Amino acid sequence: MQRWHWKRIDYLVHRWVGVTLGLLMLSWFLSGIALMYYPWPAPTESRRLALLTPLRMDSSVIGFAAAARVAEDAASSSTGASSNAGGSRHGPLVSGPLVGGRLMRWGGRVVYQLWRDRRGHEQPAAVVDAVTGALITPLDSATAIRVATDVVGTGQLVRGAKLLAHGDHYMMAGEYAASFPAYRVRFDDARGTAVYVGQAGGEIVGIVTNLTRLTTWTGTVPHWLYFQWLYSRPELWTWANLVLPSVAIVIALTGIVLGTHQLFPRRRRGEWRVSAYRGVSKWHHVAGVVFGTAVLTWTLSGVFEILGVSNEPRPGQWQRVSAGPTQWSAIHVGEADAVRLAATGEAAAAPVAVDLVALEGRVGYEVHFQDRREVWVDATTGAVRGEIASRDAVRLADRVVGADAPIQNVTRITAYDTYYYSRHGRESHLPAWRVAFGDRAESVVYLDPVTGVPVGFVDADTRAWRWLRDAMHCLDLPAINNRRPLWDAIVLPLMIGGTLSAITGVWLLLRRVRRVIQAPP
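Given the sequence above, the corresponding structure tokens read:
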């Protein structure tokens, strides 16, 4: 009876599991390189503000309270019509209570974009004309085209506007789902720009160009298995993204063990040749040993990529700071007066947006100026302030954590730290108040310094996933994160090495399969 040595078992497992997933692993490395330069389609908050044009303020606007009544009345009637008629074409206009909004110039007119709370973030839910009080939601295609034209500039030929019930391949991630249905407005410009405009909230959901399309099909689609038929089955997609990387771990681990054992095969006889193999086999052996740890790290962390928590605020934390529903009746100061008060004593700069935000049961305006200044004006008293004081930050952070947790330190940060940072193509709010607690989870709350709302939250779970998932998979280590091209100089050679290991492995596997097929019976 043949005895199976561990090396023989390791070799066969590595070979035949590699036959099964070799091409997939190669696609992960090639798509990973594309993702390093993927232009994220969703605009960041600073980008959204930069797209806004100056806002001319006068007393003709109807006010946030009136706009909220228009939206809520329409939502109630839409829900009633849906119940009576057995379904509504567009569904309810607003899902959940309104928590605030933004006054801005949008699509050639001044509007109120009203928000609801969605997992700690403001979600645009309705649009109301700020002068006439007309409800614009749900948008029609002509309005969506005007909004999209603000992004690309006038004079560009519009190729068409199509209403999408859900995201296409360029907007497929689950974080975009709440903004659909949305219009995809395509332009005939040199970049092949397509702007996605939410039908309910009128927000710019995404901006896609020819470069985005290229990196989507070479990056996100093969890397995340964003195939429509698979992603439309969430449970199957989740299992695929858990099981396939788990099997890939077996390939990487068995390869490292076997490759390391086969280094310097004749060293006992004084011959220090690195590998006994030749040709492509030698390249695969050496590349696998040199870059094997990186390959194992990426496959292992690939399992974690769809698990765990991030450093974003947790659901319910925004409500704790706002302390109850928005008191629309408490608004006694108009938006025009708020802008005038906010601009007093400052260098002339045009406002681009006025946000209404609730803080500890009080409502206030956050006035955004074109020079990126932000000023808070109390909507009840007209009191003006800049950033909240450190003692106020402590009080607000204590609302988030609760349980009378002791305060460790309070710091105003202007740069990302180890756990509060953004990944490629994303953005976290800066500056911010960082309030650290001495509870068991060593919780840290990050607050917007003007509005006081939570913009980040870190606890023991966040720290664990930060290292197991983000640091291992994206190598966004504190020393190199957001420092390009230093990050590229470290990550790209590792990606190329992993690609070399995978592509030589695929070549050997194809050669082996061909031999099996051509072998005489």
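The chain is about 40% helix and 20% strand. Try to locate this feature in the token string yourself.
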